[in-house]
Amino acid sequence: MNCIHLCLLNAAFFALSSASVSYSQESANVTKVEEFLKEIYRDCPQYVDSSHIEFGKDCLKRTIFHKVAKDQYPECPLLSVAQKKNKCNEQMSYDLSSFDPQTFNPLKYHFFYYSPNTSFFRVDGTEYIIEIKPGK
Fold first, then answer.
1. What is the mean pLDDT of the chain?
2. Is residue 100 exposed (0-12), middle (13-18) or buried (19+ Cβ within 10 Å)?
3. 8 Å CB contact between 120 and 8
4. pTM of the entire structure?
5. Contact (CB, 8 A) for 3 and 76
6. Cα(30)–Cα(21) distance, rounded to whole angstroms?
7. CB-based contacts of 100: which residues, under 8 Å, 6+ apart?
8. CA–CA dist 64, 66 (Å, integer)
9. Long-range contacts of range 14-20, CB-CB < 8 Å, 24 or more positions apart?
10. Which stretches does DSSP call E strand in 23-102?
11. Alpha carbon 134 to chain centroid distance?
């Protein structure tokens, strides 16, 4: 069983343990969707249109950041292994040295936004786990 499957199995544990384990969560910053898209599609501005903005908002609404102890959920795959987008901006930065959920652009990554299952990624070296809720 690979790390992604193990992390998916822990989704239920996240929900069950929230009452007894201290952690915080917050949603991705939907108000920055146009800024995020402009960064990703810097050299392809035709993709910063109303349909991509709506798609981006939908993805951001389903992106949740959980702050948990670094030793919890060690089986969770690291964000550094997630496939990155760079077709329209080859100089895009993926620096996570000062991770902040309010400024982090999850749209830079090929997350499984339309998978039937929830997926999780640990932000390397931090207490943050990114949850991607399933699409409709």
1. 85
2. exposed
3. yes
4. 0.82
5. yes
6. 27
7. none
8. 6
9. 14/66, 14/131
10. 24-27, 63-67
11. 12
